[in-house]
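Anyone opening a protein record will find just a pair of labelled lines. With that in mind, the following record should read easily:
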Amino acid sequence: MLDEILGIDGLYGHTVEGWKALVHPDDTAMMASHLVNEVLGKAMRFSKEYRIVRANDRAVRWVQGLGKLETDAQGNLSLLRNHPGYYNPQTS
């Protein structure tokens, strides 16, 4: 279901860089700040409302992202487990 919301398939890179590529350009600075200052800086869970641009059809969608960071064996950031839910802000 997540891939369908994001407009991606199983071949798309499920990485932080892959996620950043989907974030709407007008929300990039806000999301970078949230990721660096709150999620990484304060070890908080990822929880933010933002827009994406779907990879397959370039449609803009609002999502509520909830997730956590995962690291590899050396402690390097390897993946953002982001579980967005789609919603329409005109009806929410």
Summary: The first helix runs from residue 2 to 6. Helices lie at 2-6, 16-22, 28-40. The two ends are 21 Å apart (CA to CA).
